[in-house]
């Protein structure tokens, strides 16, 4: 069975993607900071009959990243790495004039440095897979100038560039940066408290990710709404 590592998998998009892959027979290594929420998510995924290893920890910790890859190796290897764990930099979001430098550093460490570190750790196993792939979860804030989203958007723009270069440097892999669009998640609620307008559930976006895995288009940046068209 193929094996995926998914960070930020205890809720939101990470959990929805884990459940969808489990339903397709994937074995999974799941990461999140909160042990309780991660255990609950792993229990839901395990009901599909898949093998799941849940490892709470921080993706900014190199030892934790090595443990994630080692767990995947014990399941058979690494066919997919999904860098979904994200930090906003400030909760709620604030204008750049008010953004603490420590908050920006936090966003860069979680969203960019840790994502690259995990790929570096997993790269030998990814290259050994006939279908090795990396998915980095981007944002429209990486490409559009939205007030208060500057720090987070800058980190996601940096992640997009890393993914683009990785796709060039590692032609044996598929490397997809995916902008999922608006979703009803705890991350958005923390970013903009009180904005409870209607947004799609993360599960509604998952078919876009599955389409990438099914069709394996060229490495690049993709927007989920475009991938969902005609499905």
UniProtKB/TrEMBL annotation:
List the Pfam families. Answer: adh_short
Q: Which GO terms describe its cellular component?
A: membrane
The signal peptide stretch is none
Annotated InterPro entries: NAD(P)-bd_dom_sf (IPR036291), Sc_DH/Rdtase_CS (IPR020904), SDR_fam (IPR002347)
Which PROSITE patterns does the record match to this protein? Answer: ADH_SHORT
Q: Is Oxidoreductase a UniProt keyword of this protein?
A: yes
Report keywords, A-Z: Oxidoreductase
Q: Name one GO molecular function term.
A: oxidoreductase activity
Superkingdom, natural source? Bacteria
What PANTHER family does UniProt report for this protein, alphabetically?
DEHYDROGENASE/REDUCTASE SDR FAMILY MEMBER 7B, DEHYDROGENASE_REDUCTASE SDR FAMILY MEMBER 7B
* Family as reported in the entry's similarity comment: Belongs to the short-chain dehydrogenases/reductases (SDR) family.
Q: Know the name of this protein?
A: NAD(P)-dependent dehydrogenase (Short-subunit alcohol dehydrogenase family)
Q: Provide the species name.
A: Streptomyces echinatus
């Amino acid at each position: 069975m193929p094996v995926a590592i998914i960070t930020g998998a205890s809720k939101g998009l990470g959990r929805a993607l884990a459940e969808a892959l489990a339903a397709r027979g994937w074995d999974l290594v799941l990461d999140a900071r909160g042990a309780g929420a991660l255990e609950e998510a792993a229990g839901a995924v395990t009901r599909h009959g898949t093998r799941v290893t849940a490892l709470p920890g921080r993706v900014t910790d190199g030892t934790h990243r090595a443990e994630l890859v080692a767990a995947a190796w014990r399941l058979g290897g690494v066919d997919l790495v999904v860098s979904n764990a994200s930090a906003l930099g400030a909760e709620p979001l604030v204008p750049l004039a008010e953004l603490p430098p420590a908050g920006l550093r936090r966003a860069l460490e979680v969203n960019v440095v840790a994502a690259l570190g995990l790929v570096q750790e997993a790269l030998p196993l990814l290259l050994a897979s006939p279908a090795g792939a990396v998915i980095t979860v981007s944002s429209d804030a990486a490409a559009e100038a939205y007030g208060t989203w500057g720090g987070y958007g800058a980190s996601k723009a940096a992640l997009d560039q890393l993914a683009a270069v990785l796709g060039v440097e590692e032609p044996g892999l598929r490397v997809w940066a995916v902008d999922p669009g608006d979703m009803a998640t705890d991350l958005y609620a923390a970013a903009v408290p009180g904005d409870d307008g209607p947004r799609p559930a993360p599960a509604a976006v998952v078919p876009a990710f599955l389409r990438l895995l099914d069709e394996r288009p060229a490495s690049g940046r993709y927007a989920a709404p475009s991938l969902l068209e005609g499905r």
